Amino acid sequence: MSTKNTTDIGLGLWKIPNDQCAETVYNAIQVGYRHLDSACDYGNEVEVGEGISRALADGLCTREELTVTSKLWNTYHSPEHVKPALEKILRDLGLDYLDSFLIHFPIALAFVPFEERYPPEWIYDPKVENPGMKSAPVPLSDTWHAMEALVHQGLVKRLGVCNYSTGLLNDLMSYASIKPAELQIESHPYLTQERLIRLAKSYGMAVTAFSPFGALSYVELDMAGEDESVLTQPVITQCAQKYGKTAAQVVLRWGAQRGCSVITKTTKKARLEENLSIFDFALTEEEMSAIAALNKNRRFNDPGHFCEAAFNTFYPIYD
To answer: Could you tell me the pTM of the whole model?
Structure first.
């Protein structure tokens, strides 16, 4: 039985509506969340900051007890834009520093000024006849070295990356003066990513899994089908019945028991509490293996698919 670690389960802020975001963050901290996963691109960091500020003012926790993550968006990869992008994030969040600052995607896009559009999203100029993405010739190593300066300046505690492959991780380790502390990736029973996770851990990186339920995050975006839910798989429902837990709790337990932090998203207080209640049981090795055997390398968050479908630009980053 593992002991509870308040950073094992984090609150993801993606797709949380602005008018519910501050209250959701406050409620999450109130019930015990200490890991908040934010990003410029989510478009709600002002409200995230309001929730954090209120929670700190009410004495629910100290700033030092929180792990606040945000991410560098694709349009700010050029070294001269990295620090201003972080400073904008900090202003919106109302914070003096980030605990973790991640490269959101290994995709460099042309700069869009803050005053023109923020967050800038994927399309370079939505006003043209056939809007699409516009690449920028910025090596990932240049971006990383600019981020390292933020650590030296005390604006960021740790650096990391999202959506990197094994090849990109190996390359990053060859030039990083400050080694990445975190890898954030899509991972769930349909996309176990075992080799990538093993490599990251061999480099001493913490691994954070987003979209732990797989299709659940993507059905509303027409990026997954209702029939692709992992929560209805017999091995999951049987474990839920055995342990007196929900199917969702079993999947979260599997993710945490693999040694990953798991990012969940909900606006419901009861569900916030439910998602944290996974530390009073443990899956057997056989159950862990049976759930991992559901893997079919099904990736839902894939730029190779959604960039062409939504942004008129073919831009794969995975083979």
So the answer is: 0.96
